[in-house]
Design a protein that fits this description.
Elements lengths: L1 H9 L11 H6 L2 E3 L2 E3 L3 H4 L1
Antiparallel strand pairs: 1-2
C-alpha cells in the first residue's frame, strides 16, 4: 500500500531547479513570486 501511495505521489513531485537556493530556504529566507525578498534596513539592525 505504501508503494502505491509513493508511486502515485511521484507523478506530482517537482524537481529542484535551483539547488543553489536551497540553503537560503533552509535558513529562512523569504521569496515572493520567485524573487528573494530582502529585509528592510530598519529590521536588519
Amino acid at each position: 500500500m505504501v508503494f502505491k501511495l509513493i508511486e502515485s505521489a511521484q507523478a506530482r513531485w517537482r524537481a529542484v531547479n535551483a539547488p543553489h537556493l536551497v540553503a537560503l530556504v533552509r535558513a529562512g529566507a523569504r521569496f515572493e513570486r520567485g524573487h528573494l525578498v530582502e529585509r528592510p534596513e530598519s529590521l536588519a539592525a
